[in-house]
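EI: anyone free to look at a 340-residue chain?
SC: sure, send it
EI:
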Amino acid sequence: MEFHPIAWADPAAVRILDQTLLPNDERYLTLETLEQVAEAIHSLRVRGAPLIGISAAMGLAALVARLGAAATRAEVERLAALLQATRPTAVNLAWALGRMRARAAAVAEGEVLVAALRGEAQAIWDEDRAMCHRIGEAGLPLLPDGATILTHCNAGALATGGVGTALAPIYLAHAAGRRIQVIADETRPLLQGSRLTAWELSRAGIPTTVIADNMAASRLRRGDVTCVIVGADRIAANGDVANKIGTYPLALAARAHAVPFYVAAPRSTFDFATPDGAAIPIEERHANEVRHPGGATRPTAPAAAAVWNPAFDVTPAALVSGYLTDAGLLDRDTLARLRD
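SC: here you go
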């Protein structure tokens, strides 16, 4: 990739690509304080379940590094709790911070703690990069030469530590010389599909067509879509999937038109402690994201009208054809393999 959504700036800072400014401005920010790291996660400057977890782990390690010899386990707990509160739905956030807490509990304080957290954060990032590649390999057989893939939101290199989850098979198919094309839902109200997915795929030379979300069913009806592949922010024990709002109607449309609907996610996105989708907390965001799309000055809805703005919806497991994971392509009956 020619871009890097996250990197170490120095031992006590993290460098991120500000995704709120794409596709018009490729600007990088250096995060040095708790407020900056938390704001970057909450405001979607970094986003996507795997990258949220990586960012929180690296941010925590950088913040503790600033303390040096004064670093304590109590401060790790305090910082981790504040970072975990930034996004309630994506399970990777709590998973990554849980790993960082466990690592902190196993070592001495001071400089030893600083080094241990840096190493753990780097391991989380490295492991995600490898998991992305394995997800791509799991999905590669689904994409023959000439395939057309419909996707929603952004689950690519901008959302992970590697080549993505939903986009990983696409990148691998393209690298293998297969002629493929992608149809990207705009993904309203924040337009992650048109702003981010189309941006990164176009840079990779992969033909991409952007459609409004309400055009997806009509496109599926044409009969030229090979499959739908989306990412996930949390997958419950029964296989229900929480993903960016608009995923559920896309799954319904895919089922109505007999188009396979796949969910791509690493093992860290599966939450076996949550029994089903009804138990997944759904983040609700500010009304202005709907009233002022893309930060527009003029509102597109009257101030007197209420706005409901859930960031995610839940797709029932019955609508999922299979799960593309770093353990291979699984169905609901084989999800238990991920517990091992």
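EI: The radius of gyration is 20 Å.
SC: 👍
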